[in-house]
Design goal:
The protein has 12 helices and 15 strands. Strands 8, 11, 12 and 13 form a 4-stranded antiparallel beta sheet that branches. The chain has a 3-stranded antiparallel beta sheet with strand order 5-4-7, with no helix packed on it. A two-stranded antiparallel sheet has the order 1-2. A hairpin with a 5-residue loop joins strand 11 and strand 12.
C-alpha cells in the first residue's frame, strides 16, 4: 500500500513521517494520470454498449482512426517555401505558402523546398572561423579564382552568384539535379573561366565588369536550362579582380600610367575645345569686318563716282565756272590748314611781309562745308 494511503503507524495517524507531518504540496495538486485514464475508460465503456470488441465499438474505433488519418493531410507552407505534392511519388501540383491539404500518406506526400529564398554562392573565397578576431574572416581560394585571359595573362577573380528556384521549375529542381549548390558553383566557375578566356586583361581590370557579369549570367542560365535544373540566376557580382599577388605592383604601375594618359588626353581635348571655338569666332569676326569694309569701300566708290558724274554734267554746262570752282575748292583744301604769309611787293616798293590779321581765330569756327554744300553754293 502506498505511503500516502497509510492510515496510521508508529508516529500517529495520517500521512506523517517520523518527524511529524509529511511535506505539504504548495498550490493546486497536479491531476493523477491513473485517475484520468480510469475515468476515460469508464466513459468509453458507457458510450460503447457491449464493450470495446462489440460491433459498435469496433466501428467507432475504426472511424476515429480514419479521422486521424484524414486529418494528417493538413500541412503548412512557410513564407520562403513552396509545397510540392507527390502522388505515389509523382509530382502532381505545387502549392503556395499557407495552410494546405493533401491526401494522407501513403497516397500523397509533400516536399517543402526553400523555393522563394535567394541563395548565395561565393567562388574564389570562403568564410573561415578566426579565433583571434572572435568571428569569421574571408580566405582566398586560388584554385577557384585564378583564370587565364585571352591575351595569356593570369587574373585573380572572386565573384558571388545569387540564385533561386524558378516558381514553375520546382519539380525540375527536386528531381533533375542531386546537388543544387554544387551544380551551381561548378557551372559558375566554368562560365566565368570561359568568359575571361575570351577577354583581354585590361578591360577586365578597368571598365568591363558589367559586360563580364552579364555574359557570365547569360551563359550560366543557358547551361542550367539545358540541364533542366529549374534554377534561376538572379545576379552575378564580381567582388575582386586583380592580377596575381606576385605581379600586382607592376600592373598597378601600368594602370597608373594609363590613367595619366587618359587624364592628359582629356586635358588636351579640353584645351582644344576651348581654343578652337575662340579661333573660329575670331575668324568669323575678321570675315565680317572685311565684308563690312568691302561694302563701305564699294559704297564710297559709288558715291564718288556719282559725285564725279554730277560735277561732269555741270562742267559740260559751264566749263569756266566749274573749272574756277574746282580750283577754289582745291586751294581751300590745300591752304585751309597751313600758316599764311602775304607778300606785297607793290606796297613797299622794295617788297616785304605785310602783317596778316588772323580773322579765323577771332571769329567762331564753323564746321567745314561738305562737298555737296559747296557744290550747291557755287551753282
Amino acid at each position: 500500500m502506498p505511503w500516502k494511503n497509510q492510515g496510521g503507524g508508529p508516529w500517529g495517524s495520517g500521512s506523517k513521517g517520523p518527524w511529524g507531518t509529511g511535506p505539504q504540496p504548495v498550490g493546486p495538486r497536479p491531476p493523477d494520470l491513473e485517475d484520468l485514464l480510469r475515468r476515460g475508460q469508464d466513459r468509453l465503456q458507457q458510450l460503447l454498449p457491449g464493450g470495446y470488441f462489440s460491433g459498435i465499438g469496433i466501428t467507432v474505433i475504426v472511424l476515429f482512426i480514419v479521422a486521424i488519418w484524414l486529418a494528417s493531410g493538413f500541412f503548412r507552407v512557410q513564407s520562403e517555401e513552396l509545397g510540392v505534392v507527390l502522388r505515389f511519388g509523382k509530382h502532381v501540383r505545387t502549392v503556395q505558402p499557407g495552410l494546405n491539404y493533401h491526401l494522407p500518406y501513403p497516397i500523397e506526400t509533400v516536399l517543402l523546398p526553400k523555393a522563394l529564398r535567394v541563395s548565395t554562392i561565393s567562388i574564389g573565397m570562403t568564410l573561415i572561423d578566426d579565433p583571434s578576431r572572435r568571428g569569421r574572416t574571408i580566405r582566398d581560394v586560388p584554385e577557384e579564382s585564378l583564370m587565364l585571359t585571352g591575351d595569356e595573362n593570369i587574373v585573380d577573380v572572386d565573384f558571388t552568384v545569387l540564385w533561386r528556384i524558378k516558381p514553375d521549375g520546382v519539380g525540375d529542381f527536386l528531381f533533375n539535379i542531386q546537388n543544387p549548390e554544387g551544380t551551381v558553383k561548378a557551372v559558375a566557375e566554368s562560365a566565368m573561366r570561359e568568359v575571361i578566356g575570351r577577354s583581354q586583361i585590361q578591360p577586365i581590370l578597368t571598365g568591363a565588369r558589367n559586360t563580364t557579369e552579364q555574359g557570365v549570367q547569360e551563359l550560366m542560365q543557358r547551361t542550367l536550362d539545358g540541364y533542366g535544373s529549374g534554377i534561376l540566376i538572379t545576379q552575378v557580382q564580381m567582388q575582386k579582380v586583380d592580377p596575381p599577388a606576385q605581379v600586382i605592383d607592376a600592373f598597378r604601375d601600368v594602370q597608373a600610367a594609363r590613367a595619366d594618359l587618359e587624364r592628359l588626353q582629356n586635358e588636351a581635348q579640353t584645351y582644344a575645345n576651348r581654343v578652337v571655338p575662340e579661333a573660329r569666332g575670331r575668324a568669323a569676326q575678321i570675315l565680317q569686318a572685311a565684308e563690312g569694309y568691302s561694302q563701305q569701300t564699294v559704297a564710297d566708290a559709288k558715291g564718288q563716282s556719282a559725285r564725279f558724274l554730277k560735277v561732269y554734267e555741270e562742267y559740260k554746262k559751264a566749263p569756266d565756272v566749274t573749272r574756277e570752282r574746282i580750283y577754289l575748292e582745291t586751294m581751300e583744301r590745300v591752304l585751309g590748314g597751313s600758316e599764311k604769309l602775304v607778300y606785297d611787293g607793290a606796297a613797299t616798293g622794295q617788297g616785304g611781309v605785310v602783317p596778316f590779321l588772323p580773322l579765323n581765330e577771332l571769329t567762331p569756327k564753323r564746321p567745314p562745308a561738305t562737298s555737296g554744300q559747296q557744290s550747291g553754293g557755287t551753282r
